[in-house]
Amino acid sequence: MMFCSLFVGLTLVLPIASQQIYDIWTTSSDQKTLFQYKNLGTNPINFTDDASASASITIDANTTYQEMIGFGGAMTDSSAKLLSELKSNDSGKYWDLMQYMFNSSDGANSAGMTFLRVPLGASDFSENFYTYDDTKGDVSLAKFDVSTAPSYLFDIIKDVQSINSVIKVHLCPWSPPGWMKDSGNIGGGKFTSSYTKTYAQYLLNALQGFKNKGITAYAISLQNEPENENDSYPTALIPASYEAKIGSELRALMDSNGFTDTIIVAYEHNWDDAGAYPVEVMQDAGDSFAGAAFHCYAGNVSDQDEFHSAYPDKDIYFTECTGTFNGDWWSDLQWYMNNIFIGSVNHNSKNGAMWNLVLDGEGQPLLPGSTSCGGSDPCRGVVTLNSDGSYTPNQEFYAIAQASKAVIPRDENGPFGQRIGSTVSGSNNLVVTAYETKRSSSQDQSRYSLVVLNQGDETSTAIQFNGKNAEYTFPTGVTTLWWYA
Ligand SMILES: *[C@@H]1O[C@H](CO)[C@@H](O)[C@H](O)[C@H]1NC(C)=O
Ligand SMILES: *[C@@H]1O[C@H](CO)[C@@H](O)[C@H](O)[C@H]1NC(C)=O
Ligand SMILES: *[C@@H]1O[C@H](CO)[C@@H](O)[C@H](O)[C@H]1NC(C)=O
Ligand SMILES: *[C@@H]1O[C@H](CO)[C@@H](O)[C@H](O)[C@H]1NC(C)=O
Ligand SMILES: *[C@@H]1O[C@H](CO)[C@@H](O)[C@H](O)[C@H]1NC(C)=O
Ligand SMILES: *[C@@H]1O[C@H](CO)[C@@H](O)[C@H](O)[C@H]1NC(C)=O
Predict the structure, then answer these.
(1) Which end of the chain is less enclosed by CB atoms within 10 A, N or C?
(2) What mean pLDDT is reported for the chain?
(3) For the whole prediction, is pTM greater than 0.85?
(4) Where do the H-state alpha helices sit in 258-394?
(5) How far is the CA of 55 from the centre of ligand 3 (A)?
(6) Exposed, middle or buried by CB within 10 Å (0-12, 13-18, 19+), for 13?
């Protein structure tokens, strides 16, 4: 009897509770509202039969696209160093910042970043040049040691994991050891193809070294920006045909050493060559690579379609773009949403990530002598951490946070959001992406979320879903909202 009445009660309540919008996160162009949460409480926005708004966003939940893994940035040695200093100077503030970046629980006041890119060895944001085996000619890798990386790097990643159990770690080297290249140096030079097997073994050792430290990678790439060399910081030229061969060797080693669940990602370079380099890697060794990763520094986001149309079943990742100081806050935020945190997703990316998560107010510490982020407008971290321990989340942070909220699992360790169809009519100022996040239990309703960039004036807009309309006036800025159905 008890069971029966409870069951009747639920079936009566659920349809009423569904399709109302209670939860809204907003970042406004005037910065008066910065990733601010509003719960509409007793006055939710209802989906009704009315439709009077001037613009509309139509959600098509029956058209599904890629499953997301979330948003974030890179934990460079420099970012980890600053965070580690903050931890020893003021651990309360450190944990506040870490929570604000990485707590992906539903309802937390946090960006809930779930994607962490980690350089293997030195990048241009390290204290010095190093790889895990800088002993010239050590082809047996007897001297290999991931602990040539600073211990604070591993410590900080483990702190991230202690807050976020679903963080996806994507490892990527900035260069093979110098002795595997024609330059003999970590800065610049071209990979020597006779070291293909040695380098694959080096990368397997790196995966194992991280695993032994408690960090199991979601993904590994073989070379950051393989078409760029510069002797002022760790870089290497690795042609597509070489990358394909290294990937095949590494895939076989990973499969026989307990890394079947870790994927290999190709390319890791700019949009402009999306139709060539990564396509060639897939042609040569498609079985070994799950997909390709893109950066923002040349070409544009629609170039991702060249790769997608050639290999529609392969993953797309967007793994690097940096902010620079002295730009306009709102122009920057619009650019990030248009091109990465909405744009790249609408061009099939499963994630979106900025470069350094944390730097200081001068874009330091940069690798001594590196020309990569110099000049009058240095690279900016997602968060600026000042020497007095105060910190400022930058426009990059708000772009990530607004996107991340829409796709983080609704249930602890439950599914991430999956992109679904959305179209805009009646406005040229609205840029939108939509997701469905399924639940751990099929009894529970899905969360449907929207990320909306409004580049114009406030616009009253109908959100059309399953034949009903909910009306909301989007402020100039970025809005994330959701409902259950
Ligand atoms: C939506 O419906 C609820 C009743 O379910 C009502 O209390 C609320 O005021 C309505 N919201 C708006 C914005 O009219
Ligand atoms: C994340 O935030 C929630 C809500 O603020 C809190 O209850 C939870 O303890 C945090 N999780 C972790 C792992 O720190
Ligand atoms: C290295 O990069 C700097 C800055 O972008 C550039 O001025 C320099 O020419 C580059 N060097 C090489 C060898 O490409
Ligand atoms: C993006 O690049 C393609 C060429 O790769 C070009 O046709 C297109 O106009 C560019 N789009 C924008 C918005 O710049
Ligand atoms: C930590 O404190 C030291 C000594 O006061 C200072 O030099 C350093 O900049 C501080 N670092 C951070 C990130 O707060
Ligand atoms: C999705 O498909 C189902 C069944 O075909 C239909 O009832 C529903 O209205 C469709 N939903 C949308 C949003 O088109």
Answers:
(1) N
(2) 95
(3) yes
(4) 277-285, 304-310, 329-336, 343-346
(5) 48
(6) exposed
Atom of ligand 5 nearest to the CA of 387: 9
How many angstroms separate the alpha carbon of residue 372 from the centre of ligand 3?
A: 8
Identify the pLDDT of residue 2.
37
pLDDT band at 70 (very low <50, low <70, confident <90, very high): very high
| 171 sits in which H/E element | strand 168-173
Instruction: Please tell me what DSSP assigns to residue 339.
Output: I
Ligand 6 atom closest to Cα of residue 465:
13
Q: Identify the structural domains of the chain with CATH numbers, from first to last.
A: 16-67+416-484 (2.60.40.1180), 70-404 (3.20.20.80)
Ligand 4 mean position, distance from CA 395 (Å): 25
- State the average pLDDT over residues 60-72: 98
283 lines ligand 4 (CB under 6 A): no
Helix, strand, coil percent values for the chain (each to nearest 5): 30, 30, 40
Ligand 5 midpoint to CA 11 (Å): 57
Decide: 303 in ligand 4 pocket, CB within 6 A: yes
